[in-house]
User: What shape does this take?
Amino acid sequence: MSRGVAELDERNAFSQKRVNAAAVLDQAWDAEAFTAADGMAATRLTRSTVIALCDELVERGWLCELPNARAAGEYRKGRPARRYALRADAGAVVGVDAGQHCITANVADLRGRALARTYTEIDPDGHSGSARVAAADKTIDQALRLAGVPKEAVMCVAAGVPAPTDREGRSPEGEYEFWSRMNPGYAAHFRERGLLTEVENDANLAALAEGALGAGVGASSYITLMSGERFGAGYVVDGRLVRGRRGAAGELRLLSLVEGVGSTFGIGALLREWALELRASGTVDKTSPLMTTPRSRLGAEVVFRAAESGDQAALALIDRMAERLARICAVLGGLLDVERIVFSGAVAESLDLLLPRTAARLDELTHPPAPELVASQLGGGVVSIGAVARALEIVRANAINLSPSTVEQIIPFLYAGLGPAPQAKASHDTPKCHRHLDRDDVRYAVQGRHPGHAAALRRRRRRRAPAGGRRGRDRRHSDDRRPSLGRPDRQAARPVRERVVAPGTGRSTEPRGGHAAHGSTRIPDGDGAAQDHGRAGLI
Assistant: This one.
């Protein structure tokens, strides 16, 4: 075989192993915990390959090994299965809602659990792009500090803007340069900071949030309608987000052509304007909340509360808005044949009176069945929630090319706001990566310098039974006698056989000359034959 053919075969084998590793890691995202059998069913790989890949992913820091099936109470007979889980603290993502009036940043772990949320109010009519970018930086940095997450642990930032965006996250100027002011180069700026970045239209991110966690769950085709100051839409048709060639599919300029609508102004903006007009007309009872509320505070919330209390002037405004919304829904729902229209944004929680009136009028305007009209339950943070969901999608799709945070990077993340690190021993019902560890334990485990650590490893090697022996197998799976990490109990009998590895570093803390060569890993290939891939590892 020629040298060129051999090199090509080696590259192909390496590429295939990366594909296999990505498939196993994908299984980890879908399950709270999984075994080798689960991995085999999901990937159709052999048991030895799945276990080897899981061990490699543990070393890289993507996975942690849980107590085995016997300790978890899921084991009946035979050898208990090893169990793995995605390390939620292997990194963090940031979701940003860069709106016209306010910039909000959400920090979440890799399971989507919120860690911190901050916001910064900005000048809605400001023309300084640098001021908006600086406000976004400030908001993100505050959220990371509040969460206790170092900047190096951030794997992706996704931001929503009230403007269409292309594939690179850029926006056109738009009317009166509004779009370019709302998106003054966020994507390029965040990438210069070394962050994996996506900038998307805010309504599209709201649609992703509703599909993942909100009123869009279970619907294959739906529209999310941002309905505050201006209308904007995110379309999901047959399970796919519709963006269009320039990312402007949800821009609703067509509403200016719809009879009885005429503009893109939203529920919040129009109810405020109509209430002020009605107040100035002098036709409203002086005891109405529309008259007694100060002009500066007269807005959609006042109208909704007055309508709920039976105020006739406010109810008239609700009926007027219902007619307008029904026409908008008839056009959008009929155009895309969706099963549901979700009203999102801060105003959504106040639509109890408006939506039934809108649905009744919509039935008159469309052929049955009309789209179902529902109010979002995600509140005013729907865009930043959708940004987090999108960031997690990006991390998942690119995970095999990303580097998880090391244990040392995660220390502030684990103990943010908790004061001194807890000294309690780890619970066997808690994943290894989530146990409360002493700071010295974690640091010495990474560096391999704990005074009692090498002695513990020597005791483990002396107690190992010959390969294939019954006693060796029993000890290997005996979790109830495992000493705590970094401070082994000298009286602990027969600890399990394991090699301590610093997550994310690929380095073994086992002394040179031990059972395994330092930094070397025996990895079976696809047919089960073991190959030594050295420090570079598998992936």
Notes: Residues 308 and 353 are 7 Å apart (CA to CA). The two ends are 26 Å apart (CA to CA). The chain has 18 helices and 15 strands.
